[in-house]
Amino acid sequence: MSQAELLELPVAIDLVTAARALGIGRTRAFELVRRGEFPVPVLRVGATWRVPTAPLLGMLGIATTTSPQ
Q1: HSE of 25, CA atoms in CB hemisphere, 13 A
Q2: What confidence category does residue 23 fall into, taking pLDDT thresholds of 50, 70 and 90?
Q3: How far is the C-alpha of 49 from the C-alpha of 11, rounded, in Å?
Q4: Which strand ranges, in their side-by-side order, compose the sheet holding 12-14?
Q5: DSSP 10
Q6: What are the beta bridge partners of residue 13?
Q7: Alpha carbons 24 and 31: distance in angstroms, whole number
Q8: What percent of the chain is helix, strand and coil (3-state, nearest 5)?
Q9: pLDDT tens digits, one per residue of 37-61
Q10: Rounded to an integer, what distance in angstroms lies between the CA atom of residue 4 and that of residue 61?
Q11: 38: closest CA among 56, 58, 53?
Q12: What distance in Å separates the CA atoms of residue 4 and residue 26, rounded to the nearest whole number?
């Protein structure tokens, strides 16, 4: 994913999108979640997994703050 695409993500994303941003596959992402080793916080919402975008962007070194104008 490009930096522009990452900055356009909503507040929380699905696990597959987070995995894509990290450059890992879907199967590996679910395996890491099951083992409690996914590199950023993961939330269980009903039957789905959601990943808050801010910690993901932070891990990738992408600043989300804007400078005052």
Answers
A1: 3
A2: very high
A3: 14
A4: 12-14, 48-52, 43-45
A5: -
A6: 51
A7: 11
A8: 40, 15, 40
A9: 999 999 999 999 999 999 999 999 9
A10: 13
A11: 56
A12: 22
Write the CA distances from 63 to 7, 43, 44, 45, 52, integer angstroms: 9, 22, 26, 27, 15
CA distances, 2 to each of 9, 36, 46, 48 (Å): 11, 27, 30, 25
The length of the chain in residues reads 69
Determine the residue type at 29.
Answer: A
Phi, psi (rounded to 5 degrees) for 3? -60, -40
Closest listed residue to residue 21, CA positions, set 34, 38, 35: 38
Give this prediction's pTM: 0.85
| Rounded Cα gap, residues 43 and 35, in angstroms | 14
Q: Which amino acid appears at position 53 of this protein?
A: T
